[in-house]
Write a structure and sequence with these properties.
Helices cover 28% and strands 24% of the residues. By secondary structure, it is α/β, with parallel strands linked by helices. Helix 7 (152-164) packs across helix 8. The relative contact order is 0.17. The structure holds pyridoxal-5'-phosphate (PLP).
Length: 378
């Protein structure tokens, strides 16, 4: 489907490595997830890929945004997004960042501690606040556990405190880990949120927003369940735990929107062996862990590779990046095969690289420039 569109997009003759973003594919992904979660507020997590052309088209299609910094706020405003409908989803903000956001019209902020709540009350008075709940990342290929969120009993206290500080305790948020492969992993947090809403109602506090975060997965080398399966699993859980008192649902997809829109064009620098009898070849590309492929750490995200020589006989390879750091190996434990006649100078296209790549690329490690990005509209 959409990922294929990006692969078959017209050949770009830019120097490699270069990330080609097909903006239309991202918009199609947004439309599909917004359709699956009909009625939900869909905030694209800008950190997945903040390319201005992408943000502009998403804003034009009606997408809302989740931001985590001043530059992301500025990018969204430049893309035409209404600041009043941005959510500032990071729970770790400097006081100046909160004041900056508030001055530009941002009115929704996440928090997971009393200290952060007090900052928001001072620098963004009266704003809507969402309390981030700790959630398990079990089942996710790229876990986000532990760093964000608090336990439910603390969340209840903090929501009361928010009301006392004159803030609007609008709801809760959680994130089940990125590239979450199990649609059932949202339910435990939904159950926690429902119990929390109930408890707060007894104190006259009526939270209304359930922010189910991101985590929605995409096809890399293996197909995942369709997004509709995630939507229906979440919908069922919301009905089961909230019943008649349905909250407003909000989601923050990052990877789902951006990943299928990107193809990373790279060049083979060297194909070699470590001994004459080695069956496994080493294939060194001109992009690696420091050039944007950070999510290959622990071989967590396994991208699909396409070469012009595909179809002929292939054999096992270890794939590595070009830098002089020995952790700059992409895949050595995961079975990857590439054509036997692959050689230096060949282009290898890394598919599904639209999310968490360009922004992860280092500034100048080993003298290599950050990853170039070209956004096109097909
Ligand atoms: C990164 C992030 C997201 C997006 O996560 P994906 O797994 O890419 O969908 C959503 N919400 C918050 C708060 C995030 O930090």
């Amino acid at each position: 489907m959409t990922a294929t569109a990006a692969v078959t997009a017209p050949e770009v003759t830019a120097p490699t490595p270069c990330l080609i973003i097909d903006v239309a594919t991202a918009v199609a992904q947004y439309r599909r997830i917004a359709g699956a979660f009909a009625g939900a507020h869909v905030h694209y997590a800008v950190k997945a890929n903040p390319e201005p052309a992408l943000l502009r088209e998403l804003a034009g299609a009606g997408c809302l945004f989740d931001v985590a910094s001043r530059p992301e706020i500025d990018l969204c405003r430049a893309a035409g997004a209404d600041p009043a409908r941005l959510s500032y989803g990071s729970t770790i903000k400097k006081a100046e960042d909160i004041a900056y956001a508030y001055a530009r019209g941002v009115r929704m902020f996440a928090f997971d501690s009393a200290e952060e709540l007090d900052k928001i009350a001072t620098y963004a008075p009266g704003s809507e606040v969402l309390c981030r709940l700790l959630a398990s990342s079990m089942g996710a290929r790229w876990p986000l556990s532990r760093k964000f969120g608090c336990v439910p009993e603390m969340a209840a206290d903090l929501m009361r405190r928010a009301a006392g500080l004159g803030l609007d305790p609008a709801g809760v948020s959680f994130h089940v880990g990125s590239q979450q492969l199990d649609p059932r992993r949202w339910e435990p947090s939904i159950a926690t949120a429902a119990a929390l809403f109930d408890e707060l109602r007894a104190d006259g506090i009526r939270p209304r927003i359930l922010n189910a975060g991101g985590g929605f997965p995409v096809d890399y080398r293996t197909a995942v369940a369709p997004i509709e399966a995630y939507a229906s699993s979440i919908e069922t859980a919301v009905s089961r735990h909230f019943g008649e008192d349905r909250p407003e649902l909000m989601i923050e997809p990052g990877r789902y929107v951006a990943a299928p829109a990107g193809v990373l064009h790279t060049e083979v620098v060297l194909v070699s062996r470590k001994s004459y009898g080695d069956e496994q070849r080493w294939v060194f590309l001109d992009v690696g862990r420091f050039g944007g492929l950070a999510e290959t750490e622990d071989e967590a995200i396994q991208y699909r590779l396409v070469t012009a020589r595909d179809g002929g006989p292939a054999g096992p390879v270890i794939l590595a990046g070009p830098t002089c750091d020995s952790v700059d190996i992409l895949y050595q434990h995961t079975a990857y095969e590439l054509p036997l006649d692959l050689r230096a100078g060949d282009v290898v296209r890394i598919v599904g690289t639209g999310a968490y790549t360009a922004t992860y690329s280092s500034v100048g490690f080993n003298g290599l420039p950050p990853l170039a990005v070209i956004a096109q509209s097909s």
